[in-house]
Amino acid sequence: MRNHIVLVFILNSFFVTSQTNGYVEYDVSRNFAWDFHTVKTLSFNATQSIFTALKKVESDSEVTIDDKTDGVSLILRSKTKQFVLNDLEKDSLFNQEVFFKQTPITKEKTTVIPWKLQDSTKTIGEFKCQLAIGKFRGRTYHAWFTQDIPVRFGPWKLQGLPGLILEANDDQNRVSYRAKKVSIGTVMLDVINTDEAIELQSFINAKPQYLKEIEKKMRSKMPRDGTVEMNLPNRNTQQEISYEWEVEVIDNN
Predict the structure, then answer these.
(1) What is the pTM of this model?
(2) 40: helix, coil or strand?
(3) What is the domain extent for residue 232?
(4) What is the distance between the alpha carbons of residues 65 and 43, in angstroms, rounded to a whole number?
(5) Domains in the chain: how many in total?
(6) pLDDT tens digit string along 110-142?
């Protein structure tokens, strides 16, 4: 009898372990200043997930000067593959940022999204899913997760539910993620060096000054009567509209 109990325990452990390792492909749509569609992947094990593009479609930007015409150009170069690394053991998210020539890895403490579980259910592929609604950085997301895959991961920075998020969109349909392929089994996650990661808040706060430096460089190459002005994009056209530390400042005032 004891041998049977041990065998059942081993089989159950294997089943749980296998269900916490896998790979998902998502159709991703973003509708802001222009429509953007791509496929991104989520590879995960029990303690980490990595969300990245299936192909290298992200772009760096570079300001260049045309010496013949004294013109200023903005050239896009596809050389940086962005990612979001969710590390449960470090309670942190790491994100490969791209902002002109800057491509730092930023780090932030994992945000507790105040998800509210709903009674609605549906089947996605072979997985029974439940609806949850939560607000994160200025947008309200509807997420469908499955407890058949008991990990707290999801696409992008959406996480913290009692099962893998297979589908999500914000309530304005600006952003959507839909699983198109799910593979359960052992996967090898890329080893990412995060030793030199900088705090996300520091990176966000430094952006205005960096733009001023680019403006100065561009003006130095333009005719005297030339003008140039660079501004950060309107937050409403970005996926992250507001950040926790900004909300805290408003609340304290």
Answers:
(1) 0.80
(2) strand
(3) 2-252
(4) 40
(5) 1
(6) 999 999 999 999 999 999 999 999 999 999 999
